[in-house]
Design a protein that fits this description.
Blueprint (H helix, E strand, L loop, with lengths): L9 H26 L2 H24 L3 E6 L4 E6 L25 E4 L4 E4 L6 E3 L9 E7 L9 E7 L2 E9 L6 E4 L7
Antiparallel strand pairs: 1-2, 1-6, 2-3, 4-7, 5-6, 7-8, 8-9
C-alpha cells in the first residue's frame, strides 16, 4: 500500500515564507528606486506641455504669454503677459481681456506631493498675489515670434525626496532638458 501525503508540513511552509520574505526585502528597494521619481518626471512633462501651449498661444494670438508659478506650491498659470491676468484683481476672467480679444488661460497644479522649489528656479521675483496667498514668479515669457525672453530653469521637489529635478528651457530654440544636476544652466 502506498503512503499518500495530503499537505505540507509546518517546516516547509516556514521555509517558503522565509525565502519569499528575503526576496521581497531585496526587491522592494530596487523597485522604489526605479519608480521613486515618477511624480517629479510627470510634473516636468506637464510643465513642458504648458510651455508648448504658451508658445502656441503667443504665436496664434500675436501677443506675449507668460508662464508663472508660486514657489513652494504646485500652482502655475499660463496667461497673456498683461497686468489684468497677474495683478490678482478679482473679476479678471480667463476668457477675455480689456481689449475684447479672446485669450487662453491655464490655471493648473502639479501632481500631488510635488512642489516648485526656488532651489533652482531662475524665476524672477514676485509679481502679484494669486488667490492662494503666494506670489507669482515669472519663469518665462513667450513672444509671438516663437522665442522666449530668457532661458529658464524650474526645479521640482517631491515630499520625502530631497533631490530636486531641474527642467531647463533654452529661450531662443524652445529646447528643453531635465536633469538632477543644476550645472550648466543659464
Amino acid at each position: 500500500m502506498r503512503n499518500t501525503r495530503r499537505g505540507y508540513t509546518l517546516l516547509e511552509m516556514v521555509l517558503v515564507l522565509g525565502v519569499l520574505g528575503i526576496s521581497a526585502a531585496i526587491a522592494v528597494p530596487s523597485v522604489r528606486s526605479m519608480f521613486g521619481n515618477s511624480r517629479q518626471v510627470a510634473a516636468a512633462d506637464m510643465i513642458k506641455a504648458r510651455w508648448a501651449d504658451a508658445r502656441s498661444f503667443a504665436r496664434e494670438q500675436g501677443k506675449p504669454y507668460r508662464f508663472a508659478l508660486v514657489d513652494g506650491t504646485g500652482a502655475f498659470r499660463v496667461a497673456p503677459d498683461s497686468s489684468e491676468f497677474w495683478d490678482g484683481a478679482p473679476g479678471a476672467t480667463p476668457e477675455a481681456n480689456t481689449d475684447g480679444q479672446q485669450c487662453s488661460v491655464i490655471d493648473g497644479s502639479l501632481p500631488r506631493e510635488v512642489k516648485f522649489s526656488s532651489a533652482g528656479n531662475d524665476a524672477q521675483s514676485t509679481q502679484a498675489a494669486p488667490q492662494d496667498g503666494g506670489a507669482w514668479a515669472n519663469a518665462i515669457v513667450f513672444l509671438p515670434d516663437g522665442t522666449a525672453r530668457q532661458d529658464a530653469t524650474v526645479a521640482f521637489v517631491e515630499t520625502g525626496n530631497t533631490r530636486p529635478l531641474y527642467l531647463k528651457l533654452h529661450g531662443n530654440t524652445g529646447a528643453t532638458s531635465t536633469s538632477y544636476d543644476d550645472e550648466g544652466t543659464h
